[in-house]
Specification:
This protein has about 150 residues and is α/β, with parallel strands linked by helices. The chain is built from six helices and five strands; from the N terminus they run H-H-H-E-H-E-H-E-E-H-E.
């Protein structure tokens, strides 16, 4: 999907990809716990942060979050929800951060437009983490799918 496509769906993105509140709490609580196992006051880079549907609850949990996305309209929605969350209009393959900046990197539904995790284009996000960092990936479940 191109940047234009994500910009076009920014106004309906949250409504069409909402999670049940208990599922969202379980997901973000698990991410926060995993990050706190790495650092007491963890910093997280979310690649493809979009409108912040995962970032906003993580920020509420006290995670120091930075989000990147290639879609300005998506980032505008996040900015309207949580102006204090650091954001950057950036591509995962060319980050504006030095190595070892974050305690973790999170990818939520972002692997379909980019190559596999250990490929050359994803080396920048992985390099942005410190040596004791963690990588998280959330993808749609296919359990029960027919």
């Amino acid at each position: 999907m191109s940047r234009i496509s994500f910009d076009r769906v920014a106004d309906c993105y949250d409504a069409t990809r909402a999670l049940p509140p208990d599922a969202l709490a379980a997901i973000t609580g698990g991410i926060a716990r995993a990050l706190r196992d790495v650092a007491p006051a963890p910093s997280l880079l979310e690649v493809g942060v979009g409108t912040g549907r995962i970032a906003v609850p993580l920020a509420t949990e006290g995670i120091r979050l930075t989000g990147i996305d290639i879609a300005p309209a998506m980032l505008a929605h996040l900015r309207a929800k949580r102006p204090e969350v650091a954001i950057a209009l950036a591509d995962a393959t060319s980050l504006p951060f030095p190595s070892a900046t974050f305690d973790g990197v999170l990818f939520v539904h972002t692997f379909f437009p980019i190559p596999p995790l250990h490929s050359a284009p994803l080396k920048p996000p992985l390099a942005a983490m410190g040596s004791s960092s963690t990588v998280g990936r959330i993808t749609p479940s296919t359990r029960g799918a027919r």
